[in-house]
Amino acid sequence: MRNGDGMDNAELQNLPNGVLLSWGFVKQQRRGPKGELSVKQIVEAAIAIADKDGISAVSMSRIAQSLGFSTMSLYRYIDSKEDLLTLMQDTICEISIPPDEPNKDWREMMREYVRATVGVFLKHPWFGDLPVSGVPLTPNNLHIVDWALRSMRELPLNDYEKLSMVLLLSSYARSSGLIMRDMDRAVQQGSAPEAFSGNVYTDALKTLVTPERFPDLSPIVQSGVYTEENNFDTPVNNDFDFGLERILDGIEHYLSSKTKNPS
């Protein structure tokens, strides 16, 4: 295997072909006109289709049609749909990462990371339709992991703890991003925003959710909080920020316990 500089890299042989392509390690193209297309053009066309019509609409034939080439011409650059999906995921993960600022608050850095990750799911709704298939291996994905780890550079955590924190934050970002994406999709398809809060169903729920059948839920429904009829006066008044702050509180508590009881 050789990369674009002609370097031999036998140790990379076990990596999936799509991953190798993302790093610039390429195979000799099959016979055909040179320079007529590029991997980048094909991937960008695929992303445009997915952004418009969803990941199920992406096919080599449709991409070829959008670019004005034959389907077979694409296979000289990308071998399979699996490789294409790998490259699409890596491309949309090329996001703006804030500059490294010494002494910046770690909580704020984690907030920035989670919000930016959520943004990928909202900008490219199809991203959440792809299953998680393993650890990040492509360069842009790894840049995001590296960014997340930056917030823990000065924290008293070992390598396992740091990666576990990244997984915790990433999982929250993914679940929140999917919920926000689904809400956006529903609104675009004609649902009223009020349907998500359930506000229009407040009176019905107050009748149906009785103390006898739902002893712990009933008081919350009756208060109006369940359907956002009333909100308590709290420092954080939206679900996403409230959940994120509680995760950060948990991390801070964990750090405090390690300081008091070092292993």
Key attributes of the depicted protein:
55% helix, transcription regulation, 12 helices, Repressor_TetR_C, Arc Repressor Mutant, subunit A, Tetracycline Repressor, domain 2, flat, 263 residues, mainly alpha
Provide a quick synopsis of the model.
The chain is mostly helical and 263 residues long. It has helices spanning 17-22, 39-53, 60-67, 71-74, 81-92, 106-123, 139-150, 159-188, 194-197, 202-208, 218-223, 239-260.
Can you walk me through this structure?
- α2 crosses α3 (60-67) and α2 (39-53) crosses α5.
- The longest helix has 30 residues, at 159-188.
- It is flat, with a radius of gyration of 24 Å.
- It is an all-alpha fold and 263 residues long.
- It has twelve helices and no strands.
- The two termini are 45 Å apart.
- It has two domains: 10-91, Orthogonal Bundle (Arc Repressor Mutant, subunit A); 106-191 and 233-260, Tetracycline Repressor, domain 2.
- The protein has helices at residues 17-22, 39-53, 60-67, 71-74, 81-92, 106-123, 139-150, 159-188, 194-197, 202-208, 218-223, 239-260.
Write the H/E string, N to C: HHHHHHHHHHHH
* CATH-defined architecture of the largest domain: Orthogonal Bundle
Supply the helix-strand structural class.
Answer: mainly alpha
**Termini separation:** 45 Å
Specify the CATH class of the largest domain. Mainly Alpha
Strand element count: 0
What composes the largest sheet? none
For the record, the count of structural domains works out to: 2
CATH topology of the largest domain: Tetracycline Repressor, domain 2
Number of helical runs?
A: 12
Name the poorly predicted regions. Answer: none
- The CATH superfamily of the largest domain turns out to be Tetracycline Repressor, domain 2
User: Beta-strand percentage?
Assistant: under 5%
User: Radius of gyration over alpha carbons?
Assistant: 24 Å
Helix content: 40-55%
**Assembly context of the chains:** single chain
